[in-house]
Design a protein that fits this description.
Low-confidence stretches: 1-10, 1463-1476, 1545-1551
Helix content: 25-40%
Strand content: 15-25%
Number of strands: 54
Shape: globular
Radius of gyration: 32 Å
């Protein structure tokens, strides 16, 4: 049987419906231990297996509790054991290092197995080595379930002896690699069923035992591992958490050289680029054998497996493993002021050789001699390590995975962003990151090579003037490329005046391009992918330090060139948007002497006389022209549509670019040439991103520049042509960074060609030909329709229509316009709905629903093309489930108090509570007075409390007052981005609820800083479930291809509920690019989610909600048929309450008092709860009528019955006829006994946990407020300690809590993740030991004290004590940490006070309140996005300014005490002011008192030597402290102080 995936793929279902195994993700716990001196022992093997067991909570199980996601261990070959075993088999092994072992998974079917074995034996002989024999690996599967047994392979070891003429072990390793690669390629092409085949490892140094095992099963299943003779000097282990539950043995990790906790976001592009190197790659080490290795990276592997293959190639090609790792995962070098020149030159040189494999990653790697680990440039994965006095190094995703005696530990540290840890067992030492990289950077004079070979476009003289505009009229050119009046009115002005992208709000309600009557640009069929759960987005503004737009144009050097002779010239641009004069420099670059570049311009226009039919030939001819040009030695191709005119039609630029890019990849020529696009079509951010995603290394939007010149008269006077163009380029660049960052990609170079888009409404033939490997779900239009649309635009431009002689098309994409694009919410539908709900008239509602549902005239939505089939005979409506029951399944959408007024927010809450549905707080907190019912019985409390990435107002009290807690992973209007509330909407009330400062704008980070992977999501679900065990925990996702696998991961992570939002939803402010071009319709995402959950047997344990643009009862029925249990409505109930869709919510000017905080406008709000109630009952009654016609009594009967849907053949349209919904309507048959709707509950692991014991022991405090003291031990598997205890306290006493130290808990040991999360006021946790990530998350007034054990030998101020993302979203409380913290300390802290002895990168990011004292070094990018609170940083080196992000803060030395303060101090008056005043009072003063007070506390609680030293020499140290003060915060404090003074004067209280 031929199949493309060289995996043990037996357990994976075939691609069916919308489920595609390619969309699976995994993330995981990693670990290794090694003896620095290389001494081998069985203890290391045993401890490796123990690490796995202690990382169990980082893995997951699905429906089958006995089926793990995969685990494994990589060891050095245990020579003594293998000799003894092979002796019994009559195999004689040569000396250690002179034999290799192939560890292989084989089919149980004997005939096929023997063919594969024979193939291996022949290859060994063919490559001149000696085949020695086979050994069957003994296994014990007695603890497997039948499901896992059915996929278990036959496992064998093949022994190979080294040829006599080989003298170096590296040469033997190379031979083994070549043998294994050839074996895999042959087996893939066999006719037999070889799906069980997988070569785990083939090496003379290492051997790999892995499988679809639970962490604890590795040692039980592989009986070899428990044999005392199995000894190794190192062990690499991995525990996997995948989004699927299908047993795929080969995907378990480690792989042959690495194990990886992370996600490679650019893997599609990386694989394409590797494939395209085929003909320009040669190696002096591998020689002729290189040809035997293709394909280097077979299709269909996981991202880590692809990475492992690339790393193997580089190491086989002669690079050291460290060198290869720095090429694949480079540090952030562009624009890093802290990096030395030598090292920067090293990275810059290699940047042209290899595009980064970009994404969050902690990777442990080994070649069997050296073992190490590295972390991505952004530090998005945890890895902690210790060194002991008996030469052991132990690294794992968290601390505490092995019980090591404290007195034996000599160092505790962490992997740092972009840094490497390396143990060389041959040299017997740990090699520091600096030593490794300095040695590599000095191996050659890279700067000299760059000086000789690098041409920076910016530095080239502009000797040729730009091409003059063609003779074609500007208006005609704009029309030919589809410009509209909206482009000129909405898109361009903000870009050219302020360098910002235009904003909009209220989502989008226009049809997708494949349903639109209008001629749409090809770009609009592509939707940007975005990160959700399995990897985090990056913040492109606050974390710009790790991002880069540098692009290389032209041929890539030979990847395996070890000589570094620097003969290849490289052309570098600092950003990819070329002005006209830049393009001319490239066009004429071949004229410069001593230069390897030759540029050819390929005309992308074709003869208009041939019309739409001529497009196919035109594309074929430019592809052939490009191929010939490369073969003839041209190495930069400019694809140009400048020749557009009446007789010449321009090919869509994206089509031309991608067609040429893929044609050259298929020919193996793409890395021999640079691709530049000169187009009149590209003008908005999405256009540039799509061009880049399909291979454009640089883009010149000449018509956009011409348009800007023409707009000048309408622009403000201070804007001239030069600044207008500069700002436009700046805005586009910012937008590209934003789109890259949504996917977690940090460099343009790795984004280029990465194809991170879904196609919505394009057919597969078209995609496979021109956009190979892009994902698509519903088929759609092809080349003929795209050509027809192009010709329509051309005719508009050069035809006879009078409308277009003088003006552009109106557009109508962003607002309703006459003759513009169709909108679902228009004056008719809005007025009909409002009239119906206010008058209670069901006839008027029926009119409204008819206009929305019937789409024969105007196609609007995918579901408008669906037909509902009956299930049986129609039944009387009184037999159908009541409307009162159906409305309980309804919820309103997440609109925050802040984005909408209190009146609108409470109206929705009262209405939903009356009908038994649920309203949603949105991401802005909620006022506690709403938690108790009004006198008339109305309840204003929102049943769903949202936890978004900003964590505004997420207190313990807020969480315990919830029926559902929803984790907002993404939102429909702008998936992959954070929300923003502009400063003018943050009045004192909003500021109080959100625990922030009035008048200062609030930004939610794009990622949740405690969800960088699927196991992090599981951890947050666990945290929240601890705080409020009776609430359902929900995860909100946005529809994109692959969302089903993420939802399955969410179900495995124990979410009780998942929401699938459509791209059209979202009420918040958002860049226009995001409103239109990210995410897909919910019909696709919901169907995929249902199919994937049923396949995984995870459906019945989780409730599925659909949300986004739901308007009528028919929408509800279609949602149910596709798999929804519940239904979310946002815009419609808002309209029922009075919203008139002005789409200006972000401006605070809502004329009907809905989306504003302006007290005058709020009085205009006329909505009433009964209007919303009427609306929901109308919807339910409409749904009942449809159910009666279908012959269905209850909704549960039709949930997931997608087989009752069909395409409505009666509706025909030239574009939509190509749509095919069979994948959406595919119904997966459930396993016997499973339900296809939510019928059971998740089993949460919160029964037997430490907090339950603490609650018992704290009973006296909880009931009677009496102080209690508790002591206990703690371990790394004790997670979220304090959360459940605090929930109990908050239920009784609210946010105010109890008096300080009422409950004092003293713990010993290493705490698991989220130690002290949501700890309430009145509780103190004192920990002697250390803690992992997320300490003090959501701290709500409690106190945390952590210090090393008394018997510890480490130096606390040089050792790590708490992990990453400490105090995320903390509201209040105090923390004292004697030691160093990891990355992102105090991120989004709203008010906690903390003292710490050092922090990693991104400290105090997004902080809005509180006070942080750092008495040690800080990492890069401190205070990025910090808008409130203050920090005091001890800057002994005088370096801090370079490490601080100064865009929102100012630095000041500590001011001298003024005379008044000195007097008060002397008289003791200051103490009389009370401590609270000093700590939390006026943050603009009292600096010395505050600092001294906090340091005194630090000494008192942790006995810190560092703080003692500072206090003992306070006058010497004070000048070394820097105060970090946010500018906006300072202004707000001054204004508030002035207002208070004037108020006290007014009331006569001033003195």
């Amino acid at each position: 049987m031929t199949h493309q995936v060289p995996l043990n793929s037996r357990g994976l279902p075939i691609s069916q419906g919308l489920y595609n195994p390619e969309n699976e993700h995994d993330a995981c716990g990693i670990g290794f231990l090694a003896n620095i001196k290389g001494e081998k022992s069985h203890a290391i093997v045993k401890q490796g297996l123990q690490i796995l067991e202690n990382l169990t909570h980082r893995g997951a199980v699905g429906a089958d509790p006995l089926a793990g996601d995969g685990a494994g261990i990589l060891l050095q070959i245990p020579d003594e054991f293998m000799r003894a075993e092979t002796k019994n088999l009559k195999i004689t092994l040569p000396k250690q290092g002179q034999y290799g072992i192939l560890m292989i998974f084989l089919p149980h079917e004997k005939e096929t197995r023997e063919i594969i074995k024979k193939t291996f034996e022949d290859l060994v002989t063919q490559e001149g080595q000696k085949f020695l024999g086979w050994r069957d690996v003994p296994t014990d599967n007695s603890k497997f379930s039948d499901n896992v047994k059915s996929t278990e392979p036959f496992i064998a070891q093949g022994f190979v002896g080294q040829a006599d003429d080989i003298t170096r072990n590296a040469d033997f390793e190379l031979k083994l690699y070549i043998i294994r690669k050839q074996l895999s390629n042959i087996v893939i092409d066999m006719q037999e069923n070889t799906s069980a085949y997988y070569a785990c490892s083939c090496s003379s140094r290492t051997i790999l035992y892995k499988g679809m095992l639970l962490a604890g099963q590795v040692g039980e299943y592989y009986t070899d591992l428990t044999d005392e003779r199995v000894k190794s000097g190192l062990a690499l282990v991995h525990q996997r958490f995948s989004t699927n539950t299908f047993p795929t043995w080969s995907l378990a990790q480690p792989f042959r050289m690495v194990c990886h906790n992370g996600e490679i976001n650019t893997v599609r592009g990386n694989v394409n680029w590797m494939a395209s190197r085929r003909f320009n790659m040669e190696s002096s080490v591998i020689g002729e054998d290189l040809a035997k290795l293709w394909p280097l990276i077979p299709e269909g592997l996981s991202d880590t497996a692809c990475f492992d293959n690339a790393l193997e190639l580089l190491v086989a090609g002669g690079y050291s493993i460290m060198h290869a790792m720095t090429m694949l995962i480079p540090e952030a070098w562009a624009g890093n002021p802290l990096m030395g020149a030598e090292r920067r030159a090293f990275y810059e040189y290699h940047a042209a050789l290899m595009e980064p494999w970009d994404g969050p990653a902690a990777v442990a790697f080994t070649d069997g001699i050296q073992i190490g680990a590295t972390l991505d440039r952004n530090g998005l994965r945890p890895a902690r390590y210790i060194v002991t006095d008996d030469d052991m190094v132990i690294l794992a995703s968290e601390s505490g995975v092995l019980p090591i005696k404290e007195e034996n530990i000599v160092q505790k540290w962490r992997l740092q962003p972009g840094k490497m840890l390396l143990i060389d067992t041959a040299e017997g030492r740990i090699i520091s990151d600096d030593e490794i990289k300095n040695e590599m950077a000095r191996a050659f004079d890279y700067q000299d090579i760059l000086n000789r070979t690098q041409i920076k476009l910016e530095e080239l003289p502009a000797e040729v003037s730009p091409q003059p505009a063609s003779g074609v009229d500007l208006l005609q050119k704009q029309q030919a490329f589809g410009y509209t009046q909206e482009d000129l009115k909405l898109l361009f002005p903000p870009m050219v005046t302020s360098g910002q992208e235009a904003l909009g709000s209220m989502g989008t309600d226009t049809p997708i391009s494949a349903l639109s009557d209008k001629s749409k640009l090809l770009y609009t069929y592509f939707k940007q992918n975005f990160a959700q759960v399995t990897n985090p987005p990056i913040d492109p503004i606050r974390e710009e330090a790790v991002m880069s737009l540098v692009s290389f144009i032209g041929p890539r050097p030979n990847l395996l060139d070890l000589e570094v002779n620097g003969t290849n010239k490289r052309l570098e641009v600092s950003q990819p948007i070329l002005r006209n004069q830049d393009l001319e420099k490239i066009r004429t670059i071949g004229d410069i002497p001593d230069n390897d570049f030759r540029t050819i311009t390929v005309d992308c226009t074709y003869d208009a006389a041939t019309g739409a039919k001529g497009m196919n030939n035109a594309i074929e001819s430019i592809c052939l022209l490009a191929e010939v040009a490369v073969i003839e030695g041209d190495n930069i191709i400019i694809l140009s549509d400048r020749n557009v005119c009446e007789d010449k039609i321009a090919l869509p630029a994206l089509l031309a670019t991608s067609a040429v890019h893929h044609h050259l990849i298929r020919k193996g020529l793409r890395t021999s040439v640079g691709l530049v696009v000169e187009t009149g079509e590209a003008r908005e951010v999405h256009h540039f991103c799509a061009l880049a995603g399909y291979g454009a290394e640089a883009i010149n939007p000449y018509l956009a520049f011409e348009t800007i010149e023409n707009m000048l008269p309408q622009l403000p006077e201070e804007v001239n042509v030069h600044t207008a163009k500069l700002r436009y380029v700046k805005a586009i660049n910012k937008g590209i960074l934003k789109v890259m960052s949504k996917m977690g990609i940090s460099t343009y170079q790795s984004y280029c060609g990465a194809q991170v888009f879904d196609a919505v409404g394009l057919n597969n033939t078209f995609i496979e030909h021109y956009f190979t490997n892009t994902k698509s779900a519903i088929e759609g239009v092809g080349l003929s329709e795209i050509a027809k649309e192009t010709v329509m635009r051309h005719t508009q431009a050069f035809g006879e229509s009078l409308i277009y002689k003088k003006s552009l098309d109106v557009g109508g994409d962003y607002a309703v316009r006459i003759r513009g694009e169709a909108h679902q919410w228009n004056s008719d539908s809005i007025s009909a709905l409002q009239h119906a709900v206010r008058s209670g008239s069901s006839e008027t509602y029926d009119e409204y629903s008819r206009t929305v549902n019937e789409q024969a005239e105007k196609l609007m939505t995918l579901r408008g093309l669906f037909k509902i089939k009956p299930m049986g005979k129609a039944i009387p409506i009184d037999q159908v489930e009541s409307a009162a029951d159906i409305v309980k399944r309804f919820a309103t959408g997440a609109m925050s108090f802040g984005s909408i007024s209190r009146e609108a927010h409470t109206t929705l809450a009262i209405a939903m509570n009356q009908i038994g549905g649920k309203s949603n707080t949105g991401e802005g907190g909620e006022e506690p007075d709403r938690f108790t019912p009004d006198r008339n019985g109305d309840l204003r409390r929102s049943a769903i409390k949202q936890v978004a990435s900003g964590r505004f107002g997420v207190t313990t009290e807020y969480l315990v007052n919830a029926d559902d807690i929803q984790i907002k992973m993404a939102q429909g209007a702008k998936p992959g981005e954070g929300g923003q509330l502009p400063g003018h909407k943050v009045d004192p009330v909003i500021a109080k609820v959100r625990h922030s400062t009035p008048g200062v704008g609030l930004i939610s980070p794009p990622p949740h800083h405690d969800i960088y992977s699927i196991e992090d999501l599981a951890q947050l679900i666990y945290d929240l479930k601890n705080v409020n065990p009776i609430a359902r925990i929900s995860v909100k996702l946005v529809s994109e291809i692959g969302v089903g696998t993420v939802a399955a991961g969410g179900s495995k992570a124990k979410a009780d509920h998942v929401t699938i939002s459509g791209f059209d939803g979202g009420t918040g402010a958002s860049p226009l690019t995001s409103l239109k071009h990210a995410g897909s319709p919910w019909e696709i995402g919901l169907a995929e989610t249902q199919q994937t959950l049923v396949l995984n047997r995870l459906r019945d344990r989780i409730a599925v909600q659909v949300d986004g643009g739901l308007k009528t009862g028919r929408d509800v029925i279609i949602g149910a048929l596709l798999g929804a249990d519940e239904f979310g409505f946002a815009t419609a109930p808002l309209i029922a309450s009075g919203c008139i869709m002005m789409r200006k919510c972000h401006l605070n000017t809502c004329p009907v008092g809905v989306a504003t905080q302006d007290p005058v406008l709020r009085r205009k709000f006329t909505g009433k709860p009964e209007h919303v109630v009427n609306y929901f009952f109308f919807v339910a009654e409409e749904a009942r009528k449809i159910m009666a016609d279908m012959g269905v009594k209850s909704l549960n009967e039709i949930i997931g019955r997608s087989d009752l849907l069909d395409k409505n053949k009666a509706i025909s349209h030239w574009k939509s006829d190509g749509l095919d919904f069979t994948k959406i309507f595919h119904k997966v048959e459930p396993t016997k006994g499973d339900s296809i709707y939510n019928a059971t509950k998740q089993q949460h692991d919160i029964v037997d946990i430490l907090d339950r014991k603490l609650i018992d022991q704290a009973g006296e405090a909880l009931k009677n407020k009496n102080p209690v003291k508790i002591t206990a031990d703690i371990h790394n598997y004790d997670r979220s300690t304090g959360a459940m205890l605090s929930g109990e306290l908050a239920k009784r006493y609210g946010h105010k809590g109890l008096t300080e130290d009422t409950v004092h808990v003293k713990l010993n040991g290493i705490a698991g993740q989220s130690f002290g999360a949501f700890v309430a006021a009145g509780i103190t946790f004192e920990l002697e030991g250390e803690a992992n990530d997320y300490v003090g998350k959501g701290l709500s007034g409690g106190k945390l004290i952590i210090y090393p054990p008394k018997n510890s030998k480490i130096v606390p101020e040089q050792s790590i004590i708490v992990g990453n993302t400490v105090l995320f979203g903390a509201i209040n409380g105090e923390c004292y940490f004697r030691g160093v913290a990891g990355e992102r300390f105090a991120v989004r802290n709203s008010g906690a006070i903390a003292v710490v002895e050092g922090v990693g990168d991104h400290g105090c990011e997004y902080m809005t309140g509180g006070c942080v004292v750092v008495i040690g070094p800080t990492g890069r990018n401190f205070a990025a996005g910090m808008s409130g609170g203050i920090a005091y940083v001890l800057d002994e080196e005088g370096e801090f300014e370079n490490r601080c992000n100064l865009s929102m803060v100012e630095l000041a030395p500590l001011p001298e005490e003024d005379a008044m303060a000195k007097l008060l101090h002397a008289s003791g008056e200051l103490e009389g002011h009370g401590r609270v005043d000093v700590l939390r009072g006026d943050m603009s003063g009292h600096d010395k008192e505050r600092l001294v007070h906090l340091l005194e506390n630090h000494v008192r609680y942790t006995n810190s030597e560092r703080a003692k030293t500072i206090l003992g020499n306070i006058d010497d140290y004070l000048p070394k402290f820097v105060k970090v003060m946010p500018v906006e915060y300072k202004r707000a404090l001054e204004e508030m102080a002035a207002a208070a003074t004037s108020l006290s004067a007014y009331t006569g209280q001033g003195e």
